[in-house]
Design brief:
The chain is mainly α and about 140 residues long. The protein contains six helices and two strands. The protein is globular.
Length: about 140
């Protein structure tokens, strides 16, 4: 089951944080079709947010076709997003990179900004850029 973490300082609406975290769990395969989301009461107890906020998030997820509410039973995942398992080798590489960035003194927001900029570069072009020669051979930079 997914556990929501609310960052009150992020500037992102609380209900959107729940939506985004659910979408991320779906992309990573942490939630699969048929899985039950925590009840609004469970989310409220874990995060101390307003129950209407949880319900708003769940309605948004339902509007997107990702979940369905079953009266008296709860809210269940209807479909998944993406196909990146949590045990992907790419996750390990990214984790190592993030650890190096942190060890070099980068702040979380700096890492996020750098990562977002690279994502933008890589995914706005028509073709993926080829790997540098040393990276293809498994050498570390």
């Amino acid at each position: 089951m997914v556990e929501f973490r609310i960052d009150r300082r992020s500037g992102v609406a609380t209900y959107l944080q729940i939506v985004q975290q659910t979408q991320q769990a779906l992309r990573l395969g942490l939630l699969e079709p048929g899985d039950k989301l925590p009840t609004a009461r469970e989310v409220v107890e874990a995060t101390a947010i307003n129950p209407n906020t949880v319900l708003k998030a769940y309605r948004e997820l339902e509007r997107e076709g990702l979940v369905e509410a079953r009266r008296g039973l709860g809210t269940f995942v209807r479909k998944s997003l993406g196909s990146t398992p949590t045990d992907s080798p790419l996750r390990g590489e990214l984790s190592q990179w993030a650890a190096r960035a942190r060890a070099s003194g980068m702040e979380r927001d700096d890492v996020a900004a750098l990562f977002s900029a690279v994502l933008e570069e890589q995914f706005t072009g028509s073709e993926p850029e080829s790997e540098p020669e040393h990276a293809a051979k498994g050498d570390s930079a």
